[in-house]
Hints:
Layout: H1 2-18, H2 27-32, H3 39-46, H4 53-64, H5 69-99, H6 104-112, H7 115-147, H8 153-200, H9 220-234, H10 238-246, H11 250-259, H12 266-280, H13 290-298, H14 301-333, H15 340-364, H16 367-374, H17 376-380, H18 384-392, H19 398-418, H20 427-445, H21 454-458
Helix pairs in contact: 1-8, 1-14, 3-8, 3-11, 4-12, 4-14, 5-9, 5-11, 6-7, 7-8, 7-14, 7-15, 7-16, 8-12, 8-14, 8-15, 12-13, 14-15, 19-20
Amino acid sequence: MTAAFLAVLALSLAIAVWARRGAGQGPRAYFVAGGQLGAILFFFLSVGETYSIATMLGFPGGVYAGGEGFVLWFFGYILLAAPVLFVLGPWIWRAGQLHGAVTIPDFFAAHFGSRALERVIALGAIALLLPIGTMQFAGIRLVLGALAPGVPMPLLLAGAGLVTLGYVLLAGLRAAAFVAVLKDALMLGAIVLVSALALAHWPSAPAPQVVAAPQVPVGLPFALSTIFVQALGFAMIPQNWAFLFAARGPQAIARAQAAAPLYMVMFPLLMAVAVFARRLGLPVAKPDFVFLATAQHVLPGWAVGVVMAAVVLAGLVILSSVCLAIAPLLTRNVLPGLDGAAQQRWAKAVMALFIALSAAGALAQVPLLATLNTVFYFGIVQTLPGFLAALWAPRASAAGLLAGLAAAALAILAMKLAGLGLGGINPGLIGLIANGAVLALWTRARPRRDGRSVIELLG
């Protein structure tokens, strides 16, 4: 089992080395692959990255624990995110090409001519991205603990962190793209194989043990507003912008999003695995371990090692993409005056630090990071009104965007502190409405006199 696991990780590193072939020089080549990813690589990088370690562990774990209700929310969010990116993705690519952008703040700084706006968006994005690394390491910790229970966990997580660092140091985003192909092939293959064997060995009667279902009252207004906020927010995630900038053209983006819902075939299969384990009464220490427990029940040892490697790769590829999103936010948009070589040099140090802090957070289970994760989409979606204004409102100014962002933050904070429910509507949607309203009013009261929209500039 361990040998098969290590063989898959070695193969992934070999692929990352191979990805160096044809890689260009400079920050744009390193962080967004020089905008040269073809349709196939872009598809695996952008669409496949939607499905992380939480998909293979958290989704069946939730079903196993009696939480089938959240499946509707998840399906709704993923299905709506695809058409949102189908429409906005090509425009994000065109806007990035127009201004030579590598990051979200690059675009806003160039279009609105504001260093303050650039730094505010960069610092906000960094704060919101920090918990993502810890989430991936938390899932990796669960797998590695089962694979090598006698090895100290800090040592295991250090090894996982070094593999991730190897990806990003070898070839930047190109390495993430190429390894994503292996990750997706193994992930989908593992899900199909384990679910097929589970269906073939389906128990005729449910086990007498009953798994207690968590009682979490989630109203329809909250579910619908959350689907809406997360689908819109998905288009504004920093690493997703990096993926879009890496595409060769808008047609590749549109084609990838048109095919994106095909990936959802994995969810009925994961549900079948979870229900199989529950009916069989399979002993599971934690609900999140249900997929791996089922794999151990139906597969030989070496195949279980491959499945575990697929799960870990799902986390490592996400980690590498978040590294490549956070590093330029700091070295390009927060730290002043770094040239291209210095950006890449400092970026490597930033990525190593991010990996170390993420692993430490997973070991310590820092409550603050978990809290930050709950507000990820609340905050990340707030750059959307500014981007839409850049597309269509030439009179919108940097001051108006900053005022809108401040209004959103104050609205969300006020709701949290006052305990206001507002009918159960997601606070992120309230913030988004406040953001757009303030931006519109500011633009009307104090219009930018010499501005031109992205659509006008593209002619």
